[in-house]
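Much of the work behind modern protein science is quiet bookkeeping, done one molecule at a time. The protein below has been through that process, and both of its lines are reproduced in full.
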Amino acid sequence: ALLKKEEGDEVLVNTPEGEKLWFVNSIVYEQ
């Protein structure tokens, strides 16, 4: 869900608790 997102993007994520809007302030891609 967070692929191709950049820092500063807002991401709407479906969670068991419902939809949550995440503000991406740092991204670490695991190899």
The chain is about 0% helix and 40% strand. Residues 1-30 form one domain.
